[in-house]
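Let's do one together. I've listed all components of the complex below, 636 residues spread over two lines.
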Amino acid sequence: MNDQRPWWRPDGFLLYAIIYLTFIYLPVLFLPLFSFNSSKYIAFPLKSFTLKWYHQMVNSPSMLEALLNSVKVGLIVAIVSTILGLLAAKALTRYRLPGRGPVISFIMIPLVIPEIILAISLLILISQLDIPLSLWTVGFSHSLLCTPFAMLVLISRMEGFDNSLEEAALDLGENGWMTFWRVTFPIVLPGIVASLLLTFTISFDEFVLAFFLSSTDATLPIYIWSSLRFPTKIPAVLALGSSIFVISFFVVSFAEWLRRRGVKLESTSGI
Amino acid sequence: MDKSIISFSKVSKRFGTVTAVDQASFDISQGEFFSLLGPSGCGKTTLLRIVAGFETPTEGEILIDGQPMSATPPNKRPVNMVFQNYAIFPHLDVRGNIAFGMRKSGLSKTDLNKRIDEVLELIKLPGYGSRGSDELSGGQRQRVALARALIKQPKVLLLDEPLGALDKKLREQMQIELRQLQQQLGITFLFVTHDQEEALTLSDRIAVMSDGEVIEIATPAELYESPSSRFVADFIGSMNFFEGEVVDSKARNTTIASELLGTIVASEVEQEFSSGTPVWIAIRPEKLQPQFESPENQAGYLEGRMGPSAYLGDRSHFYVHIDHRDEPVLVALQNLERSLGGISRPNQSVWLTWSPDAVVVLPRN
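Okay, and this is what the predicted structure of the assembly comes out as:
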């Protein structure tokens, strides 16, 4: 166990880990690298350092509009699917529900249906109902996709929840609503935050449903896809990608910190 | 008895086809320490949860301080509960936990803080207010759960096996403190336990439950010394049972014929039995006196051989084998001296004697 290998003879697992991480992160690191490269062609050798693509990004109204669209859809989807997931998770973990197993499987099915199938069926349905395509239809389809993810996150959070905590709050004179607000919500909060972040992320980079169900308002993935036809636009897309990468890094770290804090709290609630 | 604070009238609770509580009817007096005692699954916790309002009775009604409770939700009842696992709110510190139920008390912040300090003093945790729930030991969590309920000044405090998770030493200490607290505050305690020793130690009265039914309600001494059924006699403490038949019953003296014991007399018998009634002759292990010479002039005795023994520190248990009886007779002896005096030599002949008022007579069949 404690034999120290010299650094020039790493063991197999370490080697594997290094190759694995390189495989995953090297392509991603090209993004910031080329976003600071002054050549408009994405190719080596690098020319010189520049911030002009970031400048172009900020000054491209169509790109910013697409970003704004994605954020708007993402926020609404995150809130809607987390609320639905929370209600479902509460029902499934608290009450002796008849047919609990089949109900869970049924709700989880959208996780395994190929998105393209889901997209086509929704497109048929929506055009049959004469509903015009818009960001709303995209949001609707994303909520459908995200709710099972929200449920999974929240069920695992609420599975260990001690029912007697809610009974204790009732016993101490609080009604159902205040019990939720003063006991259930603060304890489940880390799960809610995790669900919001996860569902936002899923919606933010979803392409297939957005492509089928949006009209003229593009979301960010669709904007990026369409700008691939115009090589001059690509460096600005890289700049945007790098910015999003850095922001997500901080958001995910924050979420992880919250989750760990939640776990610490939870470990003290039982005996 | 003083006025009744809780009154059960024909309370039943059924879960599907399972009857958890069957026609419970009894009263608990103001200021009493009342225990519900029974093996697990006997319905004692269900009965407690019905009082708290977490379960609605299928039939019957509960009155708390004269008020019918069937339409009153748990948060409007004048009772508070100490949960089995304490249910300390993990996201609040000790002070936050104790203050939880005081939101609508109308006390000013300074008055409330003073009350909390008083309660912390009462449960012997002064200065613990800012501790997080993860910084408390089992016993401390139990005290906080107690404080959180007591600050509400309930008419009845409900306790659901609150000492079950503590180790023996701490449990005995908490038993004494609970009893003192109850006497000091004069609040009625309704206590659920499966531990008969705990129930005997703490209670003014005990209701023994089995399979949803309340079998007997009596003081600890009555339950132990004159139980009214074989179930209670067997459940509380240990008991040796012998079959017999009543020969004669006069005043409080009953003469019983038994194959093993011969004809014996039991004094201080409360029930009247007509002659010919089949009965159980029940004698507690500590009321049997072993001697190693054949007794003379003794009305009834048992002759046997010493079997295995168990040393329990303050006392020892001996199993005595009797001819024509499968089950050995249990004898308990106080270890009054440090040397055991060779009393546990196996296969030694031994004669067991008892006084007539040690005999409990119980109906058989």
